[in-house]
Predict the structure.
Amino acid sequence: MPDHELESLVIAAKAVDRAASTSALEALLTRVYPRLLGYALKLTCNRCLAEEVCQETMVRAITGWRRYRPVRGRAGVSFQAWLFRIATNVYRDIRRKSARTASAGRPAPGGGGLAASAEDEAIHSIEREAMMEALAALPEEQRAVLVLRTYHDCSYREISEIVGCPEGTVKSRLHYAVLALREELRRRGVL
Amino acid sequence: MRTRGRQPTQGRHPRVDLLEAAWMPAGFHLDSVPAEVRDHLEGCPECRAFLDELVATRRLAGALPAEAEVSLLEVQAAVRRAVAAAGRQAAVAQPNWRERLGFVLMAGAMLGAQALLLELLEPAGFMAFQVALNWLAPFLFYIIFRLDNRVTDKRAGET
């Protein structure tokens, strides 16, 4: 679905009353979920963890829906960027908690559970495997910036809002992430 | 890096411009590279090779889909779970308005009863009533606490 269409749906969902707004948000989440899961998968490099991140993201989105301000002119933030910001924070929280207890939040080298479900059987090409492994090898901050720029066409401004750092830092992280990715792919012999 | 050919503007390393151009959301186009850097590329095979590697890296990155492969049924189930979880959280976090009203009315009734008894009873009788109330207070609080927990548990179960 094109972004402008999604944003107009978001504005329509915000305009209706509370009960209708919740069902409209439900419909919006249903549409955005594959994209959200795609982001979470690349961020966590682990299918189970990605689903957990998505679940908690949606819960926080539903409870915080009334506080969300859609894009109007230069103000506000796009619905997708808002969800991605929540997902990034959720993943950070999980990592923080798991760092205290065990290494559950750490991305599994080699993609971990990415190919765990039946529909992921298709993901067996060498390039995809190598790409996931290379992504998993990147530091978390660099990985988030790279994924947002590469797969979700986010602007530097949007990325800075999502990951919570200045635009200059985003550019620098992207720079190092691309170089590290190139090295990783080269090391695996696919480049 | 060799710096043959014309140097790029703004004192930036040409590879910074190349990397930015290679990672534009719309994909790489040589036109998006500043003219100075394009001139530099013609005279620098190392930067040319660097650019080729960047473009190849970007192509490989494109091998992964932006969206996860997930069935509509799974999506709907996940969203429904999230809605239910959010409902549970909201129910536990926010007390019902009826409970709030109940507590306010109870406090008002207690104050009213005290004022009435103060008017009706002799000072000694009122003091005796106060002592009895002080003795009963923990039991009253216990009953209210149990009642509140039962209401909250029941509501959480319903959601």
Summary: Chain B has a mean pLDDT of 79. Chain B touches chain A at residues 16, 19-20, 22-23, 25, 53-54, 56-58, 60-72, 75-76, 78-83, 85-86, 89-90 (CB under 8 Å). Chain B has two domains: 9-61, 96-158.
